[in-house]
Amino acid sequence: MNEAHYPQTLILLQSLGTALGLGLLVGLEREWKKNPMAGLRTFGLIGLFGGLAGAMSVAFGGWIIAGGLIACTAMAIMANLAAMRQNEPDIGLTTEFAMLAIFAIGCLAGTGQLAPAVACAGTVMVLLHYKDPLHGAVRKVDAKELKEIARLVLIGLVILPLLPNEKMGPLEVLNPFKVWLMVVLIVGMSLVAYLVGKFIGGAKSAAISGILGGMVSSTAVTASVSRRSRAEGSAGTVLAAIILTASCVVFARVMVEVMLTAPAHMGAMLPPLGLMLAWTAVVAGVVLWLAKRAGEKPGEEEAPSELKGAVMFGLLYVGVLYAVALGKEHFGDSGLYVVAAISGLTDVDAITLSTSGLVASGEVEPRTGWRVILIGGLANTVFKAGMAVVLGAGRFVKWTSAGFGAAAAGGVAILLLWPW
User: Fold this and answer.
1) SS3 sequence, 220-275?
2) Which residues have CB under 8 Å from 93's CB, separation 6+?
3) Where are the transmembrane segments (predicted)?
4) What predicted TM-score, i.e. pTM, was given to this entire model?
5) Which residue pairs from 143-152 have beta carbons closer than 8 angstroms and sit at least 24 positions apart in sequence?
6) How far apart are CA 226 and CA 228, in angstroms?
7) Could you read off the pLDDT of 29-48 as tens digits, one per residue?
8) What does the pLDDT average to over 378-395?
9) CA-to-CA distance for 221 and 243, rounded, in angstroms?
């Protein structure tokens, strides 16, 4: 064999070996479940068959893949007919579709697309193996939650792709796709937090309650928990820990948003925000430790998703975009700080996303960007502290005020002492 052909041969063998291995991987799970139709060897052969079809299609055309798919389908039908003649119980369609999926995955591997093939094979194996937990999770979903899931699908998979993904309007800062994407993210985070809380049996501790609530809206958590403190006066410290934990999660969420919208500037923006996250985690941890020491336990509370609140956030996001643009145009960086302090009173995400976008586009310096975001976070902290004092009672107000005061002091220190 010509030495020039060795690299191509090795690539082909690697592709076919991957196709075979992925088929064996899924076949292992079917063999372990003692599936009567196909097991380890059958799935391995199907994967190899798909790899060969994919490799041959490169040279001879896609009709080979189509013919292979028809052959796999025919074999699955024949196996089902044989099972029916032997009066065997219905074995369903899961294995049959898994066979077709492995053939297609083998074709991917055969054409050299190994990473997608591996990812798809892993997904197939997980879906097959976790049958009982997945079915159990579905049985826990009631009509209300199914409605929420359908709503998320509607706004995320139907409405979102139809919106234009381009800047328009005055100052050219309005992007309908990105604005509605914010709505989808808020609804999605809220629904995920609600379902996770339900599937693990509800929020059983202050840490879990705070984390799940902080994923959705720490401001909403503050309002609801503050009202609860009047009825649960003996659990004031642990309720304060819930709010402080939710506020800590806000800065973790802010850091994720910065990484997604301004990845090229993470090195300049994340360290001070990370320090703020660590400080608020310490504050929340101390209050939680005091609550555990006192033996306090809160009642359970769920955090369902709300489309109306998400739409209001989208409108706020649009307003912040225009306010930031006008502030930058007329007042420079000082205008950004004023806008951050105002918009951060009710929500930190809008100012974070808009400011990070300006940093990514080069309109704002990273050293200014993280300060704008932190000011928004501090404004939100002050607002929640006031809300807790007005709505709360007893030890809850004492520990919430102390916790928010310590968090705000740490944030101000970071603003003043961090080098420019």
Assistant:
1) HHHHHHHHHHHHCHHHHHHHHHHHHHHHHHHHHHHHHHHHHHCHHHHHHHHHHHHH
2) none
3) 6-26, 38-57, 63-84, 96-129, 177-200, 237-256, 268-290, 310-328, 334-360, 372-393, 399-418
4) 0.56
5) 145/194, 145/195, 145/198, 148/191, 148/194, 148/304, 148/305, 149/191, 151/187, 151/305, 151/307, 152/184, 152/187, 152/188, 152/191, 152/305
6) 5
7) 666 666 656 676 777 777 77
8) 85
9) 7
